[in-house]
Amino acid sequence: MEYHVPIMLSEVIRGLDIKEGGVYFDGTAGGGGHSFGILSANASVKLIATDKDGDAVAEAEKRLAPFAGRFKIYRTDFKNFEEVFEKEGIRQIDGYLLDLGISSHQIDDETRGFSYRNGNAALDMRMDRRAEFSAKDVVNDYPEEKIRTILREYGEESFAASIARNIVRKRAVKPFETCKELEEAVEESVPAKYRFHACARKTFQAIRIEVNGELSGLAECVKALTLRLKPQGRGCVITFHSLEDRIVKQAFRDLSTGCTCPKEFPVCVCGRKREIEPVGRKPLVASEKEISENSRSKSAKLRIVEKLST
Predict the structure, then answer these.
(1) Region of 57 on the Ramachandran plot (φ > 0 left; ψ -120 to 50 alpha; else beta)
(2) If you compute the radius of gyration of the chain from its CA atoms, what whole number of angstroms results?
(3) CB–CB of 42/18 below 8 Å?
(4) pLDDT tens digits for 207-243?
(5) Can you tell me the distance from the alpha carbon of 110 to that of 132, in angstroms, rounded to the nearest whole number?
(6) Which residues pair with 277 in a beta bridge?
(7) Residue 213: CB partners within 8 Å, gap ≥ 6?
(8) Using the 8-state DSSP alphabet, how is residue 45 labeled?
(9) What angle do CA 268, 273, 277 make, to 5 degrees?
(10) What is the DSSP letter of 67?
């Protein structure tokens, strides 16, 4: 089985508009699927990639072996791209990709504890297993109010209050250890008519986001990374839920907004200029064929922007 099936691969490659001799950044290497596509698109391009998951880095290194000498992978969060670029002596890039979704491998590997389907696997959810903080710390140590807020804001969970209350009640008797225990606590917390196999999905999503700090600093990173593009360089971001998509959409909107001075001003005094142009009026979504072959692509949205000449 493939480590991770890259979402909208052909759309990403077209969106990046890969240039001869270009330098590209894949901030979320996963198993190297998108990176492989980028390196295959043109024999003269070079790639820098990051991923904080050690399994992903190892798999990507193996998959990209045929392109030895044309790529470098760092085990770190893509938000640390400034440090990576400095090490590589890179000031500007021709394109970048951020695939913000959780990988197929992370979901399917029962030892990682990312999914309500992982049963008796330990509650973990760390993308970087070097980190000490895990899902167990959130579920067993956070106060009820904070758990409720996380579920409501990161999971958009309608029953956040009752779920948080039940978690605190149950952990007072016995600390949570497994995915199954958390899933059962969620099921007990919602009205009977809403109890179904995936009713814990939003709770697991919210806790995963909290454990890995997925939304923290995302807007700032997207803006800073986009400003590193060369003129006509392309940025591609794939999102999987409304929270991160709103952040990316707003970041791109800010960069595509020019002068904000009142119309009656004879000259611009704000100094603001448009940095990018969206490619397409709406984000791209997966084709029906891809969705039928990979159901995890159903919620994906691909936003593409191009850096304007300065």
Answers:
(1) alpha
(2) 21
(3) yes
(4) 999 999 999 999 999 999 999 999 999 999 999 999 9
(5) 19
(6) 306
(7) none
(8) -
(9) 145
(10) G
